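For this section, I looked closely at the sequence of one protein beside the tokens encoding its backbone, which the following lines show:
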Amino acid sequence: MIKINENYLKLPGSYLFSEIAGRIRKYNENNPELDLIRLGIGDVTRPLAPSVVEALHRAVDDEAAAESFHGYGPEAGYEFLRSKISEEHYGRLGVKIAVDEIFVGDGAKSDTGNIGDIFAADSTVAVCDPVYPVYVDTNAMAGRAGNYRQADGRWSRLTYLPCTAENNFVPELPSTDEAAPELIYLCFPNNPTGSVITREQLGLWVDYARKNGSIILYDAAYEAYITEDLPHSIFEIEGARECAIEFCSFSKLAGFTGIRLGYTVIPRELKVDGTSLNSLWSRRQSTKFNGASYLTQRAGEAVFSVQGQKEVRETIAYYQANARTIYSGLSKLGWQVYGAVNAPYIWLKTPDNMGSWEFFDYLLEHAGIAGTPGSGFGPCGEGYFRLTAFGTAEKTEEAVARITTLVR
């Protein structure tokens, strides 16, 4: 008799952003004449950089000629892109990462979820709360979250690291009285709160992981938005090569949400019981993944050219200006607002003690603005709300104006 993976039946009815999309569809059906402003899902709106577009065109031309045609590529990525990442990105940070420690994929979302394939099904996992839902849901799919969800929405076998205004949305180390989690997800600059972690704080986590034999799964998808003197990579921290895996993305760096590209870094010396995790991930990828397309990787290579870097920095500055617009406008209303300085997200305390989904519906119905309810990211997100800076400048300014008018 065929059996299904019952872990899927324990998940919430829908993925957070699918639920949001459903409510937006209903709103549009009931209000077809109104102009909805979308500041919810972190999708970009600016076009690809000219250097990237030119590289895509050249790559298409390559595929049109027999002598330059590319079929299956290396599962871990083409040398031309991996060397650029090693030299241009990590080299700029003063970090030495070898080409064979870089695995090119189709986005950080996929890799942060799939990385669990190389760990035991009963591995213990710690996540921040609030948290990017993919970390929790993919571990629940694998059976690591336990057999039930508690009344507050937490999975029974996950360790939750509360991130609140009191700790500046940076989790504290687990108590020494508790067994250390084997896998620890950290994301900085953080999604959804926009918070950041200092070198000293990250150093404490690295020391903790090394002492307890834990692995840190570090999501650095938003490192390009850092404006202050903060670590862009966990590998800037001494000892991290012995305890960390890093995930990076081209989605927010260069607007690749539609063409998909990212990469994962696993140092060669990172081992569990003498087994190389670099080798295990290589085995996993070569079996389950045929690599990102040649076209996409040529586009990624162009991002690291001198002109490409100039162009993507201009786009990032555009979104950073949007973040400042939202932060400033809502702060003037007397609201508690966080993030925006080193991240493209604005995290705000809902006014008048409104619930997160209550505020979502209120903002949608009365201002025609779609955001993301904080409770969708975890119990500690209840009473908070996330807005993104990825809209156009004009729509961002209009959204602030609508909210201001609504409040006043």
The chain has a mean pLDDT of 94.
